[in-house]
Amino acid sequence: MGTPYEKDVVAWAREQAALLRAGKLAAIDIEHIAEEIEAVGRSEQREFASRMSILLAHLLKWQCQPERRGSSWTNTIRTQRQSIGRRLRRTLSLRPMLDDEEWIAEMWDDASEKAANEMRVAIPELPLLCPWPMTRVLSADFLPD
């Protein structure tokens, strides 16, 4: 076998890809390949969750601090929506998360914490649950009053 997975994952990955392409299936590191494939899925989910949390935090700040609204917040909201839209188009399996109430609650908790820290307010002053449906959150023309 070539480079051990634990020693250099990048070199290991190149070697495993070459073995797969060469059809040398008996030589591949099945267990670690399976782990890496699962890790890719988790990474996509984390990225999606991070972008949703940032978007929700900025929408919450937009609603709670109208005097601070500006192009920076508008740009962040637009950028996050565009990135989320691309992810949803490329990775259809992420879409059901937008209907998962537990997942939405987790994103809202993260967003509330971010927004509270940035606005310097206590979390209890913010809505306990996301007040907007996800279709509105992702709508290009939605900004809360």
Taken together, the total number of domains comes to 1
Question: How much is the average pLDDT?
Answer: 95
Report the radius of gyration as a whole number of Å: 20 Å
Distance between the termini: 61 Å
Query: Which percent range fits the helix content?
Result: 55-70%
The helix count comes to 5
- Residue stretches low in confidence (pLDDT < 50, at least 5 long) are none
Largest sheet: none
CATH class: Mainly Alpha
Structural class: mainly alpha
Write down the overall geometry. Answer: elongated
% residues in beta strands = under 5%
**CATH level-3 fold name:** Malate Synthase G, Chain: A, Domain 4
Give the tally of β-strands: 0
Order of helices and strands: HHHHH
CATH architecture: Up-down Bundle
What does the model show?
Helix 2 packs antiparallel against helix 3 and helix 2 crosses helix 4 (101-119). With 145 residues, this protein is mostly helical. It has one domain: Malate Synthase G, Chain: A, Domain 4 (Up-down Bundle). The mean pLDDT is 95. 63% of the residues lie in helices and 0% in strands. The radius of gyration is 20 Å and the shape is elongated. It starts with 8 loop residues before the first helix and ends in an 8-residue tail after the last helix.
